Amino acid sequence: MKRIGFLYEKIYDYENLKLAHKNAQKGKTDYKDVIKVNENEEYYLLELQSQLKNKTFKNGKYHIFKKIDKGKEREIYSLPYFPDRILHHAILQVLEPIWKKILIKDTYQSIKGRGIHEGFRRVRKAIQSGDNYNCLKIDVKKFYPSINNEILKQIIRKKIKDPKLLWLLDLIIDSTKGVPIGNYLSQFFGNL
């Protein structure tokens, strides 16, 4: 598998950060942190860019709370909007096209252009083909928190060789044990 480098600079490119801020604030424009960044967008984006260029970025502190979702209690980890949420969007904007290519066609979770409806269409087509198929629906208990950080980093290194980007991803991955529910990157980490 070909490993890719020279990605870190694309993440802190000002236009990428600007797009990341635009995407991260969708549905959150009334949040006080989003309003604060919007009032002085250039200042905050240049600050984030500087932190990344100088490798002084540090993860924000998680706000951890419990949420009942479909009868299950989940522990949600929420990061500050600035700089963390903007950064996660900036990272995924660069890495999603790379990672999407290495996932099997039937990976649907949190991938643009895929999802539950596409998965349903694929299953229905397989059933209608007349071939004999078995289907198994499972739910891995505490999947995200049980992901081994070291194994996840090894998987990422099979495709990414940029040492600066690996430093940043390691910093984010090692911010908790397992992958926290609530991080924008967590869904892609889970797919990997």
Give a structural overview.
The chain has 192 residues and is mainly alpha-helical. The chain has one domain (8-103, 136-191). The chain is built from ten helices and two strands; from the N terminus they run H-H-H-H-E-E-H-H-H-H-H-H. The protein has helices at residues 8-11, 14-24, 32-39, 41-53, 81-102, 116-128, 143-146, 149-157, 163-173, 186-191, and strands at residues 63-69, 72-78. The protein has a two-stranded antiparallel sheet. It is globular, with a radius of gyration of 18 Å.
| Total separate domains | 1
Largest sheet: 2 strands, antiparallel
Rg measurement, Å: 18 Å
Summarize the amount of helix as a percent range. Answer: 40-55%
What fraction strand?
5-15%
Distance N to C terminus = 15 Å
Strand elements, count: 2
Low-pLDDT parts are none
How would the global form be characterised?
A: globular
Overall residue-averaged pLDDT value: 92
| Helix-strand pattern | HHHHEEHHHHHH
Number of helices, where a helix is a run of at least 4 consecutive DSSP H or I residues:
10
Derived from helix and strand composition plus strand pairing, the structural class reads mainly alpha
Strands ordered across the widest β-sheet: 1-2
